[in-house]
Amino acid sequence: MLAVLGVSYYYIPHYILPGLPKHEALIALLMVILAFESVRLQLNIRIAGLRQHEYYGLSSFSWAFMGICMVVLFFPFAIALASFMGMAFMDPLAGELRRIGRERLANVIWPISFILFTAVLFFHYVPITIPFSMGFTGSTVSWLSEKLKFRSIDDDFLMSVLPAACMLITRLLI
């Protein structure tokens, strides 16, 4: 749910320090996180809170941070906000529904996320057909990114990057 904080990037001044643009600081932070992950994996370090599959691959946090970095570096604010809100809402809710054995209820996540995506985009795009189209595309791709499981790429990455890319493509096509 902390992914929504990724939009705070847009409010940080262009230069964090003299001579240090915010995009370079973000990339440096990502490199530090990935270097830590590399050491953790090479030395087989177990960190409390990691799930079993994360012991042998990148942690969900690292995947999520890579996705957040890609979205804030390459997409406009409105698309990033919708994408992050969708990820922050859908991923934990779907996980909890699976945990309590109610995975079939996860299908109600899509219509709720469609309303959420469209509401966020409504304040940034006109005419009304644009946020509806982008909301439909973004929420559908986000929902599929969470629902379909991929072995090599974590859904925390896919649920931010794929909807953002699809919403931008939709916007460019309308």
Mean pLDDT: 91
Distance between the termini: 31 Å
What oligomerization state is this entry in?
Answer: single chain
Main beta-sheet annotation: 2 strands, antiparallel
Count every beta strand, where a strand is a DSSP E run of 2 or more residues: 2
- Described by the principal axes of the CA atoms, the overall outline is flat
H and E order: EEHHHHHH
**Tally of helical segments:** 6
Short structural description:
It contains 6 helices and 2 strands, in the order ββαααααα. The protein is mainly alpha-helical. The protein has a two-stranded antiparallel ribbon.
What is the topology?
Layout: E1 15-17, E2 20-21, H1 22-42, H2 60-74, H3 77-99, H4 109-122, H5 129-147, H6 155-173
Antiparallel strand pairs: 1-2
Helix pairs in contact: 1-2, 2-6, 3-4, 3-5, 3-6, 4-5, 5-6
